[in-house]
Amino acid sequence: ITIPESILNQELKFSLHNAFTVSIVTPGLNIEKIKEGVNAEDVGMDREETESSEGLQLNEYRIVFPESHTGDLNVSIKYSGKIESPIEQSEENYARGFSESPGIIADLGVYLAGSTYWIPHFNDELITFNLTSSTPTGWKTVSQGTRTTSEDADGLHIDVWESPEPMEEVFLIAAEFTEYDYTVGAVTAMAFLRTPDETLANKYLETTAQYLEMYRQLVGPYPFTKFALIENFWETGYGMPSFTLLGEKIIRFPFILHSSYPHELLHNWWGNSVYVDFEKGNWCEGLTAYMADHLIKEQRGQGVGYRRSTLQKFTAYVNPENDFSLTEFRSRYDAPSEAIGYGKCLMMWNMLRQDLGDEEFIKGFQNFNRTNKFKVAAFSDIQKSFEETTEKDLNEFFTQWTTRTGAPELQLNNVSVNQIDEGYSVEFTIAQIQSEDPFLLNVPVFIYTESDFIKEIVEMNKKEQHYTLNVNEKPLRIDIDPEFDLFRRLHYNEIPPSLATAYGSEKVLIILPAAEKKPETSRHKTLAKKWFDEKPDKYEILFDDDIKDIPSDKTVWVFGWNNNFKNLVQEGLSDYSTQLNEKSVDINKKNLVEENNSFIVSVRNPNNPEEVIVWLTIGNDDAVPGLLRKLPHYGKYSYLVFEGDEPANIEKGQWPVVHSPLTNVLTTGEEIVLTEIPKREPLAKLQPVFSADILMEHVKFLASEELKGRGLGTEELNKAAQYIEEQFKAAGLEPAGDEGTYFQTWVEKVGEEGKEFTLKNVIGIIPGTDEKMAGQSVVLSAHYDHLGLGWPDVRKGNEGKIHYGADDNASGVSVMIELAKLMGKTEKPKRTIIFVAFTGEEAGLVGSKHYVNNYTEFPADKVMANINLDTVGRLFEKKLLILNGESAREWKFIFMGTEYVTGIPISMVPQQLDASDQVAFIEAGIPAIQIFSGPEEDYHKPTDTYEKIDSDGMVKVAAVTKEVLQYFAEREESLTFTGKKEE
Question: Which among 423, 414, 419, 429 is positioned nearest to 451, based on CA atoms?
Fold first, then answer.
């Protein structure tokens, strides 16, 4: 240990785990134990304000050295002992499914941290270190910094980690890891998995590369030489300097890649290199949530909903008894502390961004990061950095939001419209109705007119202020803060009825239908009794003939289709375009029947709009355990529909905001059509895995004059086949056609005239690696033929004209080629992935039918599924359509998960369609779907040209297809075929 001369004094003390026997090695120095059994305090960023580590005891020591010593002091200390703190769950971590330990050395692995006190702790001094570890052969260790040695010697594995960056604590993680790595510029992305899984590792390494680059541009250079994903042997969600430690279940949830994982990665800039001065308030959790969780939602067009949910949590959980200022926030330990330390803080950053604009906001945080790297920093340091870059006095802003408690509550009053020479004036009053003093606010005001809207920011510093805004056109509606940009308490009408309100209620009444009195048990009784048995003081159970009116002071659950109080639920749905029928529910433009479906629908209590009524029905007896387990995780939703025994969620959503006290309609007697507010540009954009420009290059060639529409039997179609062959070869796909080529070639008579053609499918594969799946395949397809000069589907007047077929289907082939290039050289799937470009689709699915009936290397009866790309080039802002999802029960759930992971809206088309090559697979009894961007007027016309293609939309199609393809490459269970097989 090298102790700088600047901190030397006669009371040079350190703390160490009390399990250790300590001695000093350096001649001329002594060590004295001055205290025993001192309770440990947590250190570092992930501090736990819990009782879980109260059992950890420390000893305090003093180093005695000659008074005459000058310069830095070099000390060698030797100690040994056994560390075995148990893995426990605090109440807060139990709710998140996590456990914790201050430090453990076990057969399954090693976790040592600052909280372990396994390294001498000299107060809160930052330290640099070199660490050499010896572990059994086959084990590997990970710590901060750069690994300079990794070798086996004398039956042991030796690792050396060097951390020249000042650290708050020293970590040592060890286990029998399989290691993967990928170079991202000057940074090495690494993955240490307890179970070998190259596919999983590649997903994380690819995602790491994306987010490292995004945050490099947003915040500044990455502060370390590596970032490692480490699989832990218990469930954790930790972010450490240069690595993250996630549990074995957590890392296999596909949504983690674009939710928790970027959050932990961003902590390398905030909290793990710019450190938190905890005595002055933890600023970094709210900032990390804003630049990770909120940013991801913003990138997906869901920022408004995220901010509303954030304010909803503060409104629900924080009251004068448990409120505290941001300068008092240390770490999250319950719902109120999270609502303040994460929620209020991220809303503070959002307001600062709205006040300054994105450019100044980014510059300010880049300056803060640059000037405080590897230093301890507080809110005041952020203020200083922003004042330097903006040259503005931000003292009022920072003082108000970091030191005050409470929150503003807004109300819109006294709205009037007057016609003036230049148009109209809108007069209104905004009131702050909270009991506390007024807050200084910059309030967004939206006024919608007949063809547009205006947005104005009005300053507010009093409890009530009057404003006048002028517009050129007739005003239709005024909204105050409709995008939830201000930190404030929400009115109950701004919070849609939800299960969260029901779960948060202290008293709950469950009303069962009288028809269920006689049976000793029923599915509704079973669920009600389970809730009652868990919390008898909270729940009361009655039948619908026992009461005449519902109470106003508690949550009410109305169980069953035949409940007398079901009509109250229907009345509460009048604002939401949802209908409860006798044996079905109309919701989201779908009619869902009673059989095998469970419904949960929440509405306001008509006797007290701050309480809710929840209607619940259970589709079958076997669904009860699953509902009991799943419902608490769906708290933010207003309505849910589950299917089957599991049961699987098939519909969910929040009701829109209606009757808000911050909205006023300014016209009467006519239906108002409002201009849609453009989606806000996100603070930063994630570089997509796929290149829109390269996708367009493929489309331009395939839909070019040179290829003349790729008509069947033409030389131009052969050129297209050769182009695809070259792309497959360059991508690293193995040829899987005839005699070692990429072509499956045959001769067939086609069309009503029976004309004979020589036809080619183009086939390449990524071989499967799992012997148990030998011969099995998942097929990705896209047809590459089109109509040439019009045959066989020419429209009158278009005879002899080139039908370019850019959307149909140069777009699908382009996406398939880029997927092959991404996956061909790195993917190691369990099941073989087949890429096939079909010919003859326009002439009656000739190519796909020949493939299904004649391809023997991977025969049809071993095809798990077909994913067919056809006409995917004009997505724009529409939902991506999935056709023939009825061919397997699981399709809708697979695409629900894909939509959640990618953030790309997807819609399952319920009608059975025979639109494209997937039909050949369905007729053979194989689950198959078509991915489709939607019908266009240019279908089968010469005007289907590349200029009309949405290349960014094709990137989205590729992202969705990649998720589904990788899922099927690993899935072990077969799909349940529910299509119509042709006998």
Answer: 423
CB-based contact 455:445 (threshold 8 Å): yes
Residue 161 has a pLDDT of 98
With beta carbons less than 8 A apart as the criterion, state whether 54 and 74 touch: no
Beta-bridge mates of residue 74: 2
The matching CATH number, chosen from 3.30.420.40, 3.40.630.10, 3.30.365.10, 3.40.50.800, for 692-967 is 3.40.630.10
pTM recorded for the entire structure: 0.89
Instruction: Report yes or no: 339 and 281 within 8 Å, Cβ to Cβ.
Output: no
CA distance 977 to 376: 59
Q: Are 490 and 470 in contact (CB under 8 A)?
A: no
DSSP H helix total and E strand total for the chain? 22, 47
Q: What is the pLDDT of residues 773-825, one digit of tens each?
A: 999 999 999 999 999 999 999 999 999 999 999 999 999 999 999 999 999 98
Q: How far apart are CA 398 and CA 404, in angstroms?
A: 10
Q: Which fold has domain 274-403?
A: Neutral Protease; domain 2 (1.10.390)
DSSP string, 126-155: -EEEEEEEEEETT-EEE-SSEEEEEEEETT
Report how far apart, in Å, the C-alpha atoms of 691 and of each of 697, 720, 821, 952 are. 10, 21, 11, 9
Q: What pLDDT score does 54 carry?
A: 54
- The CA R_g of the chain, rounded to the nearest whole Å, is 32
Per-domain residue ranges for the chain?
1-87+113-124, 274-403, 410-494, 499-653, 692-967
CB 103 within 8 A of CB 118: yes
**What confidence score (pLDDT) does residue 95 get?**
47
Q: How far apart are CA 638 and CA 498, in angstroms?
A: 4
Closest CA to 730 of 774, 694, 688: 694
At a CB cut-off of 8 Å and minimum separation 6, what does 721 contact? 743, 760, 762, 784, 837, 839
761 and 853 Cβ atoms separated by less than 8 Å: no
Sequence-ordered list of residues with C-beta below 8 angstroms from that of 173, at least 6 positions apart, any chain: 109, 110, 111, 112, 141, 142, 143, 192, 230, 232, 243, 245
DSSP string computed for 782-848: EE----TTSTTSPPTT-TTS----IIIIIHHHHHHHHHHHHHTTT---SSEEEEEEES-GGGTSHHH
Lowest-confidence pick of 650-654, 694-698, 833-837: 650-654
Detail the DSSP E strand segments found in 553-698: 555-559, 579-580, 584-587, 590-593, 597-605, 608-617, 639-643, 648-653, 663-665
DSSP string of 443-484, one letter each residue: EEEEEEESS-EEEEEEEE-SSEEEEEEEESS-EEEEEESTT-
Rounded Cα distance, 688 and 415, in Å: 46
Q: Name the least confident of 198-202, 375-379, 844-848.
A: 198-202
Q: Is the confidence at residue 910, as pLDDT, over 90?
A: no
Residue 240 carries which side chain, given as an amino acid letter?
M
CATH number of 499-653, picked from 3.40.390, 1.25.40, 3.30.379, 1.20.120: 3.30.379
pLDDT class for 94, splitting at 50, 70, 90?
very low
User: Residue 419 CB: number of other CB atoms within 10 A?
Assistant: 9
Could you tell me the fold of the domain covering 410-494? Immunoglobulin-like (2.60.40)
- Angle (CA) 283-287-290 rounded to 5° is 150
Peptide bond into 647 cis (omega under 30): yes
Q: In the beta sheet, which residues pair with residue 430?
A: 412, 465
Tens of pLDDT along 577-589? 899 999 999 998 8
Over 70: is that where the pLDDT of 93 sits? Answer: no
Mean residue pLDDT of the chain comes to 94
Tell whether omega for the bond before 482 is within 30 degrees of 0, i.e. cis: no
Beta strands in 713-795 (DSSP E): 734-735, 743-750, 755-766, 777-783
Phi first, then psi, for residue 771 (nearest 5°) are -60, -30
d(CA 490, CA 485): 12
The CA-atom distances, in angstroms, between 965 and each of 650, 777, 795 are 21, 11, 36
